[in-house]
Design goal:
Strand content: 25-35%
CATH class of the largest domain: Alpha Beta
CATH superfamily of the largest domain: Dihydrodipicolinate Reductase, domain 2
Helix content: 10-25%
Number of strands: 18
CATH topology of the largest domain: Dihydrodipicolinate Reductase, domain 2
Number of domains: 2
Number of helices: 7
Shape: globular
Largest sheet: 8 strands, mixed
Distance between the termini: 7 Å
Bound molecules: NADP nicotinamide-adenine-dinucleotide phosphate
Strand order of the largest sheet: 5-6-7-2-1-8-9-10
Structural class: alpha/beta
Order of helices and strands: EHEHEEEEEEHEEHEEHEEHEEEEH
Length: about 325
């Protein structure tokens, strides 16, 4: 169970390619599919404005391209019902287009010969399984949520278990993505259509139902929003909590540190350095808590701030899922 294919070589597909290479898992990547010409994909794999130049040679071959003498097949097939996974004996398809998120669409990959499908976002109809939180069951289709929930859910899990949460407000301050506009354009969420590199853009994100499913005790006690800022990558989540029991900022930091050194080692980390968003780029954790910003007012009103690289951190979780799904 170790032959992967990626459908959609955008930001996440290409970051996952690099993460797999860094972690020694690239030999398992057998095929990738996107719409762009092969030369353009090779160029974008080599030169990346966020993650720098990929130093190993990528050579075009008849059927795709090769890296370190490992050949990866490339196809340009927009129709998922025509992707030929069976002849390539693909075990897991990473569905990274952002377009095919319903289980009936994931089933198309299975119909074409794949054994399992790993989504790179929420599914329209399947529950989300978040690494380090509710990841015990692995089924044919895994929907690991998005980068935000992978940052927030482990932290809520730690605090809920140790202290108890009465209610929570979450604001995800994040760089822009390809689902925003470069210059003003019509868009169904009006603010989302404004020039992404030009303004601070608040908009709604509806991760509330997902959080309420993972933490039933928080039902009707969660509010969320996103603030998009003019940077191309990196994020800071601002979590404001009303706690059930009294604590202090120091105790909260110690609790997170203890979890970061034990069961949440690869998922959560804490720093006391005065970092800024560019310092979190290429950090593999889902959440890097900024300990100096942890505050508690009156014992029960707490603020936790955590950084994440929305591309690199999340792609590391995808690579973790691939190992687990391969067992
Ligand atoms: N970016 C992040 O920080 C982040 C983090 C976590 C999760 N995610 C999620 O991951 C998914 C992908 O996001 P992304 O940022 O990587 O988006 P992206 O950069 O737009 O990548 C999607 C890629 O899929 C290609 N594509 C479109 N239609 C296709 C088709 N029918 N068959 C094959 N390829 C197709 C796109 O080509 P065109 O450009 O030509 O359309 C593009 O190269 C989204 O669901 C997103 O929510 C993103």
């Amino acid at each position: 169970m170790g032959r992967y294919a990626i459908n959609g070589m955008g930001r996440i597909g290409r970051t996952l390619f690099r993460v797999l290479h860094q972690r020694g898992q690239l030999k398992n990547l057998i095929a990738v599919n996107d719409l762009m010409p092969k030369e353009n994909l090779i160029y974008l794999l080599k030169y990346d404005s966020i993650h720098g130049t990929f130093n190993n040679e990528i050579r075009p071959t008849n059927n795709g391209f090769s890296v370190d003498n490992h050949e990866i097949r490339y196809t340009q097939q927009p129709d998922i019902s025509k992707l030929q996974w069976q002849p390539l004996a693909i075990d897991i398809v990473i569905e990274a287009t952002g377009l095919f998120t319903h289980s009936s669409e994931m089933q198309q990959h299975v119909a074409m010969g794949a054994k399992k499908v790993l989504l790179t976002t929420y599914s329209k109809d399947l529950p989300s399984t978040i690494w380090g939180v509710n990841d015990q069951q692995v089924s044919t289709f895994v929907s690991p949520g998005d980068c935000t929930i992978n940052c927030v859910a482990p932290l809520l899990h730690i605090v809920e278990q140790a202290i108890g949460i009465e209610s929570v407000h979450i604001n995800v301050i994040q760089g822009y993505t390809t689902r925003q506009q470069l210059i003003d354009a019509p868009y169904k969420g009006l603010r989302r259509g404004r020039a992404a590199a030009h303004s601070i853009i608040p908009f709604e994100v509806n991760i509330r139902p997902i959080l309420e499913t993972i933490f039933p005790a928080l039902s009707e006690k969660v509010e969320t929003m996103s603030t998009r800022v003019p940077i191309p990558c990196g994020a800071l989540v601002d979590i404001s909590l009303i706690l059930k029991n009294k604590t202090k900022a120091d105790s909260l930091n110690k609790l997170i540190q203890q979890k970061a050194e034990t069961e949440m080692k690869n998922t959560v980390a804490i720093t006391f350095d005065p970092i800024v968003s560019s310092d979190v780029l290429s950090n593999p954790h889902s959440a890097l808590v900024d300990g100096a910003l942890t505050k508690v007012t009156n014992g029960t009103h707490a603020k936790l701030m955590a950084w994440f690289d929305n591309e690199w951190g999340y792609s590391n979780r995808l690579a973790d899922w691939l190992i687990r799904m391969s067992r």
